[in-house]
């Protein structure tokens, strides 16, 4: 047992050294984080809804990071690259979606923002013109990429039918 503690301390020290570049202090590393304002989550969602309203799949796809993952409400296919994400929105945007946040929990970190909760996505049937509200859960994970907030992960799933 006496041999384990020094090994753990050496491993922890090595990990700490990897986390902060040589010559930088933990304080200076933290100072590099982009501040997350009180309205950042709402601002990002407004950008997302506006991109949906544009009807342009490229406009929506541009909101996603280079290595983003999209687990969409109405697709069984995980989208893990730009082409796959764009392909999803080519079809999905035909329903003229409008998202409304119902509940929201926001967590902030260094150059990242996580928003989870429930939302309603209004979709219009292309043939009948009938508007349908889809109640769903969501997780948006945003990260700073090239000086802009990008969606690194979006997962949305329909709410179970309540009894």
From TrEMBL:
Keyword Signal: yes
CDD domains linked to this entry: NTF2_like
Signal keyword on record: yes
Domain Calcium/calmodulin-dependent protein kinase II association-domain: 46-160
Domain of life: Bacteria
Keywords: Signal
Signal peptide: 1-19
NCBIfam families: SgcJ/EcaC family oxidoreductase
Record-given protein name: Calcium/calmodulin-dependent protein kinase II association-domain domain-containing protein
Source organism: Sphingomonas rosea
């Amino acid at each position: 047992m006496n041999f384990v503690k020094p090994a753990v301390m050496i491993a922890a020290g090595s990990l700490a050294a990897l986390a902060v570049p040589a010559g930088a202090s933990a304080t200076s590393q933290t100072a590099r984080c982009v501040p997350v304002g009180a309205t950042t989550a709402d601002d990002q969602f407004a950008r997302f809804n506006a991109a949906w309203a544009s009807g342009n799949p490229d406009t929506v796809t541009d909101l996603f990071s280079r290595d983003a993952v999209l687990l969409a409400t109405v697709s069984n296919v995980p989208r893990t690259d730009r082409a796959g994400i764009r392909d999803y929105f080519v079809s999905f945007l035909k329903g003229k979606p409008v998202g409304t946040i119902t509940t929201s929990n926001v967590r902030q970190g260094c150059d990242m923002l996580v928003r989870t909760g429930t939302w309603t996505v209004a979709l219009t049937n292309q043939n009948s013109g009938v508007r349908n509200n889809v109640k769903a859960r969501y997780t948006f994970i945003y990260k700073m990429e090239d000086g802009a907030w990008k969606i690194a992960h979006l997962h949305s799933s329909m709410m179970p039918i309540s009894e």
